[in-house]
User: Fold this.
Amino acid sequence: MKRPLIAVLNGPNLNMLGLRQPEIYGRATLDDVEQVCIQAAERLDIAIDFRQTNIEGELVSWIQECRGRARGIIINPAAYGHTSVALLDALLSVGLPTVEVHISNIHRRESFRHHTYTSQAAIGVICGLGVRGYGLAVQALYDMIEDEDER
Ligand code: DQA
Assistant:
């Protein structure tokens, strides 16, 4: 049987991880984040499609492409999470189990970061656990897919 695919989508400025405000985001780079996801996926024998873009519409298109292709979505929408109804609508339109990840604890930061539109489409949100949050998200989605397949 084909291995289930989980899409890991990253939004704006996450290509700057490692350089960008390390006191908030740490020293890990986006390549390190991808490795965290790949290691979790190998352990669970699933496939990962890991991407990053600075363009909102590209994220919308990537979410739409997940329909019929991926079993779940992990998204760090970055700043677009706080602003984008389009991303929320895209996630709602594909109806796939989604976990939202933020590296930093958005609730300990400026009040404009406390709300995300995208979280309304998410099963759960992981924030403040650094890049290890991505590994936890892969495990959580895997468990949910397994539960669904058993039903
Ligand atoms: C972030 C938190 C957002 O508020 C911010 O705009 C980001 C990164 C995080 O991973 O902690 O770009 O999503």
In short: Helices lie at 22-25, 30-44, 56-65, 80-83, 85-94, 132-150. The pocket of DQA is lined by residues 13, 76, 78-79, 102-104, 106, 113 (CB under 6 Å).
